[in-house]
Amino acid sequence: MTREELKQFDLPDTPGVYFFMQGTTILYIGKATSLRDRIRSYFSKDLMESRSPAIAAMIERAQRVEWQTTDSVLEALIVEANLIKKHQPQYNTDEKDNKSFNYLIITKEAFPRVLVVRGRELFDPLNADKYITKYVFGPFPQGGALREACKIVRKIFPFRDTCTPESGKPCFNAQIGLCPGVCAGTVSKTEYAHLLQNVVDLFNGNFHGLKRRLAKEMQEAAASEEFEKATVLRRQISALDHIRDVSLIKDESRVSSGGHVRIEAYDVAHTAGNETVGVMVVVQDGEAAKQEYRKFKIKTVKNDDPGALTEMLSRRLGHPEWQYPRVIAVDGSTAQIRAAQKVLKQTGIEIPIIGVVKDDRHKPIRLVGEDRVIAAHQKEIVLANSEAHRYAIEWHRKRLRKGMI
């Protein structure tokens, strides 16, 4: 497929899953917060340079794109995993073997645990006694996305993960409403099994059936004057109906909106052009997300910070599986901002670029860019920029020391 061929498709600006097709063969399945923005992001002008070879080959083979809309990103995440498991598309399964994917499991015991486990651990024969499973959901391509989904689900349907059943003392999660009281003995095995069925239905992708069942149970509880139970059920139904308000999944590659704010900052470090490196750091909801930091050894330029930034952003955008940020922060002013804007324009993605101008001591003196973006995210932008500088210098010095040995 080409960028021109893509224009024939009326892509919706809604959550969902998408399929790159060659004839009747599904080449790749992905999820999206916005199907329109997500699918367009694959068609950058410098595809072969900025995409991984596998993604570039997939786009070249694809003849068309299809999609299925969902009511929320959470639903898209779950539907994506179920469809990957069912169809085993080449460019999903070639990306990682099953041992590298993540799975949601529900253990087989009196009070089952709900856990996120990496495939290599789950399928290790040495763990046969550790993970005796009743249900296995997945594979899920991104572990961060699955963990975030579990946080959302657990707020609606509390479950046990690590506490000791019937110990007589509520665990921390029970005290904040994330465990139904398995530890304190306030819920029976039968009651807990019934609660856990909600999680099973959800991860089976049976969203509409789950809501119908909860609505029926709510009506029955109200008729029986079990008003407290009916209230809980009504809250659960409402949470499912409005889950899009809080369900921007981490690692979902679209510009952040809604409940989570992701800021990416980029910086370059070198010594007179030697050992030129670049880094990407992430600040999520005001906190450094160090597990999502990335390093880039600059290959195309020396003593050219805007050029290094261009290479770095092009390579970063070649990973559509990484969540796109709400704001990109660059170290510098006009030259760096223009370099970043040029890369984004080539990929058809719109993300505000904010430049951080420093004094001689490398302290921020002003931010350059859209005033509304700066006003909304100034603290996070400065934090991300500071982290990027620290991380770049640290890695550059490490490479210099290694070169001297």
- Describe the global form: globular
Percent of residues in beta strands:
15-25%
Name of the CATH class of the largest domain: Alpha Beta
Mean pLDDT: 85
Low-confidence segments:
244-259
Largest sheet: 7 strands, mixed
Content-based structural category: alpha+beta
N/C terminus separation: 49 Å
Percent helix, as a range, is 40-55%
CATH 4th-level superfamily of the largest domain: UvrC, RNAse H endonuclease domain
| Count of runs of 4 or more consecutive helical residues | 15
Q: What is the helix/strand order?
A: HEEHHHEHHEEHEHHHHHEEEEHEHEEH
Oligomer: single chain
Radius of gyration from the alpha-carbon trace, in angstroms: 24 Å
What is the level-2 CATH architecture name of the largest domain?
A: 2-Layer Sandwich
For the secondary structure, the number of strands is 13
Relevant terms:
GIY-YIG endonuclease, single chain, 405 residues, Nucleotidyltransferase, domain 5, 13 strands, three-stranded antiparallel sheet, seven-stranded mixed sheet, globular, 42% helix, alpha+beta
